[in-house]
Amino acid sequence: MSRTALYPIHKQLGAKIVEFAGWEMPVQYEGIREEHRAVRTSAGLFDVSHMGEVFVTGPEAKAFTQWMTTNDVETVKDFQAQYTLLCNRDGGVVDDVIIYKLSDAEFLFCVNASNTDKDYEWIKAGSGRFDVSVDDRSREYSQIAIQGPDSGKILGKLLGDELSKVGRFRFRPFHWHGMEIIVARTGYTGEDGYEIFLPWDGGPALWESLTDAGRDYGIKPCGLGARDTLRIEMGYPLYGHEIDEHINPLEAGLGRYIKLESGDFIGRDALRESLEKGLTQKLVGFEMVERGIPRQGYGIYSDGHLLGSVTSGTLSPSLDKSIGMGYLKSEAAGRGRVKIEIRGTAREADIVDFPFYKKADN
To answer: Is the pLDDT assigned to residue 362 strictly greater than 60?
Structure first.
């Protein structure tokens, strides 16, 4: 298995290490609940160096990125990021990614750790008729995320007032300790925050500096466990759970990231046809009425009939109740109450809207 440059720090901090997508990663330090709440109230620090970085460069980089992804690249300005999808020809999801546009001739695709090799091969295979180069530079970068309402104040101690010029889903290069780093105002928690790309060996120094800068704010190191509970509270999909190569992203509620009328892309015809025929299932959120934590694969029932299955579930640290996501047959998606089979017992749950956790400023 692979280790990030921050692995010795995780061990020093007493993190519980697990295997994830071929990497030895911290799942928690102090505890998922405490780490989760730090992000919601102040700031949390995540090692996300396992994520992949694939660069597309060349005269036709913009046209190629438009062809490969479902969102409208024409609307993306230089130093702007965009959430989008890579789809296969059947309309299934190869991966969900964030693209970072440095210029019309250079794009960075940040891809899921579990899909880095697959995505690189998929992107490279699609580049044949375009004048571009596709390079997997994942092993060159550490990536650290600082997330939470105080993240800007903490990171600003290191980078100065210029950080305030980085708007939501924008990014810009900075020089720090002799390194060129990329600071993006993006994240996967539902809170304001930043994701920082920097040379592989620079990861530990940045982590320690952010820890020191955030000490007065109660910053905590956070593992994959809190990352998962935070994204579930927001209803964000995770590859291998809510989306995969056999799931139609329109059924996953991702239609706003699929621009069928903004130029051709791989999978567009299949997605358009699925809309014309009618979607067969829908991703819904639910809150447990009775005790029990829903887990992936548990059945969702009504009147003894199987309606679908759970894709993700957890005990929400913010709401102090069990929540989950799952697919229901389209005709059943409007039901108010269902039952989740948890360890052989049917437990009641209410269908609710996303996100589960709604911030006061929303």
So the answer is: no
